TrEMBL record:
The keyword Hydrolase applies. Residues 1-20 are annotated as: Disordered. It comes from the Eukaryota. This is Nudix hydrolase domain-containing protein. Transmembrane segments: none annotated. Residues 22-154 form the Nudix hydrolase domain. GO terms for biological process: adenosine 5'-(hexahydrogen pentaphosphate) catabolic process; diadenosine hexaphosphate catabolic process; diadenosine pentaphosphate catabolic process; diphosphoinositol polyphosphate metabolic process.
Length: 158
């Protein structure tokens, strides 16, 4: 099934899926270059710095893979192909770092290849994107251990 590319990003949490412990279910990708020497990171809109494309798995999406690809499009302007499941990763933020806008989450990440990089995408005006080597990305993700865990589970050339 071809991915439908929206011209605007989804907002709000009305359709957000939650787990049995009340944790937000988040899906994301580790988007790798074809030679697996680079990963595409995006700028965070809330914290600053760099992150992997990710976001809430919503009730109208059949699978977390579908949500991960939608988020990759909205946030990074990429069309990607899921290559493999990197597994579930628990949220490692401390209680004082959680907010009603950013509650505890469980992350489901997928390794993906980038099939297309668009020049226009829904969050282009809010986020930059940059290809980075493993060492550059490792440094950029230091403050986000769950994202670094996903990167380390991928087959990026280290």
């Amino acid at each position: 099934m071809a991915q439908k590319l929206a011209s605007t990003a989804r907002t709000g949490r009305d359709n957000q899926r939650y787990g049995s412990q009340g944790e937000r279910l988040v899906a994301g990708v580790v988007p790798l270059s074809n030679d697996k020497k680079k990963v595409l990171l995006i700028q965070s809109t809330r914290r600053g710095g760099w992150v992997l494309p990710k976001g809430g798995w919503e009730t109208d999406e059949g699978t977390p893979q579908e949500a991960a690809c939608r988020e990759a499009w909205e946030e990074a302007g990429i069309v990607c192909k899921i290559l493999r499941d990197l597994g579930k990763i628990p949220d490692r933020r401390k209680a004082n770092e959680l907010t009603p806008q950013a509650p505890k989450a469980i992350f489901q990440f997928y390794e993906a290849s980038v099939e297309k990089e668009a020049s226009q995408w829904p969050e282009k005006d809010r986020r930059g994107r940059q290809w980075m080597s493993y060492q550059e990305a490792k440094q950029a993700l230091t403050a986000r251990p769950e994202l670094l865990d996903a990167l380390n589970r991928s087959s990026i050339v280290k």
